[in-house]
Backbone:
């Protein structure tokens, strides 16, 4: 049972480069979301999705794009990386309904130089 | 989503109960209280949640005051492995446009000491 899988685990980018962080879940969950966590801080919501084809912005969406073409996958795209995007990124998924727990991936550590 | 207030840090002796408070004075009637924890830099882990009744599972107990404006997470016998950041979150319930969003605050850093 893989749960939520994030790839890559580590990445170094140069300023201005683009890349996609991958997130996949095998639990058939409707809800998926992306968070970033800066050193010593709590998690901040970037984007989220309530199902395939439906996405919306979270607290800190600028500089990031998402799409949800399938239930399983929710990639996060950095169009032009900036040093301010250096962070640990977490993907989460959960089933529909209020009495449900969210499952988190192990994170992607991104450094932009 | 209602905001929560937690102490920045707490200490607890190994083997003793750890009681982590959370204030959520603006919580609405259909919002649930959730607790997650994050060990080192791992992904957050679900602990427990409740609406208005006290809840218990294999990890912890959740005590919610009658007016629902505050709650306490109880780890009955804390171990060194319980050292982590604990997040209290309120989240919309059924029929309220629940989008699955979890909005994290700063959390409480619990240090369990030998």
Residues:
């Amino acid at each position: 049972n893989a749960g939520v899988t994030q790839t890559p685990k580590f990445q170094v980018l140069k300023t201005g480069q683009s890349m996609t962080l991958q997130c996949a879940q095998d639990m058939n969950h409707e809800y998926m979301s992306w968070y970033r966590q800066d050193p010593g801080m709590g998690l901040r919501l970037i984007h989220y999705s309530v199902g395939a084809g439906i996405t919306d912005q979270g607290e800190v969406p600028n500089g990031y794009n998402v799409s949800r073409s399938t239930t399983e996958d929710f990639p996060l795209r950095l169009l032009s990386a900036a040093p301010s995007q250096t962070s640990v990124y977490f993907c989460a998924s959960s089933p529909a309904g209020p009495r449900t727990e969210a499952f988190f991936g192990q994170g992607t550590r991104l450094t932009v130089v | 989503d209602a905001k929560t207030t937690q102490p920045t840090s707490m200490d607890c002796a190994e083997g003793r109960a750890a009681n982590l408070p959370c204030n959520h004075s603006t919580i609405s009637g259909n919002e649930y209280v959730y607790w997650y924890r994050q060990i080192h830099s791992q992904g957050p882990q679900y602990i427990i949640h409740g609406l208005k009744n006290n809840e218990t599972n294999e990890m912890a107990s959740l005590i919610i005051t009658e007016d629902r404006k505050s709650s306490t997470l109880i780890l009955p016998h804390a171990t060194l492995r319980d050292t982590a950041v604990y997040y209290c979150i309120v989240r919309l319930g059924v029929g309220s446009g629940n989008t699955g969003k979890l909005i994290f605050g700063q959390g409480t850093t619990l240090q369990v000491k030998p």
Q: What stands out?
A: Residues 3 and 26 of chain A are 6 Å apart (CA to CA). Chain A touches chain B through 32 residues (CB under 8 Å). DSSP finds no helices and eleven strands in chain A. The first strand of chain A starts at residue 4 and ends at 7.
